[in-house]
Amino acid sequence: MIEPVILYSKECFIFKKNDKNNYSLFFDMENINIFLSKIIDFNLVKLIYDLNSDIYEKVNIQIINENEAIVNLLMKHLFQDLGLPQRFYYLHIKRCIKENTITFVSESIKSERPPDMPDNAELMDISNSLIKCNIITPHNINFECNILFDKSIIIPAVAEKLIGLILYKIFNRVKQFIENIRM
Q1: Please, which residues have CB within 8 angstroms of residue 6's CB and are 6 or more apart in sequence?
Q2: Which CATH number belongs to the domain containing residue 64 in this structure?
Q3: Which residues touch 101 (CB under 8 Å, ≥6 apart)?
Q4: Which tens digits make up the pLDDT trace of 61-105?
Q5: DSSP class of residue 77?
Q6: Is residue 12 assigned to a domain?
Q7: Contact criterion met (CB below 8 Å) for 90 and 61
Q8: DSSP-assigned letter for residue 110
Q9: Between the ranges 99-108, 158-167, 174-183, where is the mean pLDDT highest?
Q10: What is the pLDDT of residue 97?
Q11: Do 170 and 48 form a contact (C-beta atoms < 8 A)?
Q12: Which of 41, 93, 115, 157 could serve as 106's disulfide partner, Cβ 3.0–4.6 Å?
């Protein structure tokens, strides 16, 4: 076990490496004009991808029911210059609501490959991802995300900081979009 290392920190967004292939990120969201807990569902997941079309090439969200979805998405080939393959995610996501917490748990689907993924793209294998949305007030939510990639995934140290920057960009766009909603 290594000591957690902050890889990227900016404007109340923190991305940390906890151990090999184990990462966490933290940020808050606030908007006094809407009840944030009412929008924490799979439509928010879709919004994340829709606001970041420069990062994601393809997105498909199949909502099974209000607490379960299958998501497959293809990242743009961002690290081609580093010799890394293009990556895709194929995730089974479950949502659980308890008192003041909404949790999303996901893991990669390895039993099949989405039919619309390029042959040379590789699965970004997530053993477990846990996103806890802690409802501080109806208008303020604290997000804690923990991602554990499969041990077969090799993430070069040079890519870790870039991943932090990309995650900041993704979540900052969503945060700004939601925080600017006026009713």
Answers
A1: 14, 15, 16
A2: 3.30.530.20
A3: 132, 133, 134, 135
A4: 999 999 999 999 998 887 777 677 888 999 999 999 999 999 999
A5: -
A6: no
A7: no
A8: -
A9: 99-108
A10: 95
A11: yes
A12: 93
Please check whether residue 51 lies inside any domain of the structure. yes
Residue range(s) defining the domain that contains residue 140: 19-178
Q: Are the C-beta atoms of 174 and 51 separated by less than 8 Å?
A: yes
- Both tokens of residue 95? 């949502």
User: 8 lies in a domain?
Assistant: no
CB atoms inside a 10 Å sphere around CB 99: 6
Query: In this structure, is residue 5 part of a structural domain?
Result: no
Beta bridge partner(s), residue 106: 93, 129
- Whole-angstrom Cα distance, residue 165 to residue 133? 21
**What letter represents residue 131's amino acid?**
I
Q: What is the pTM of this model?
A: 0.90
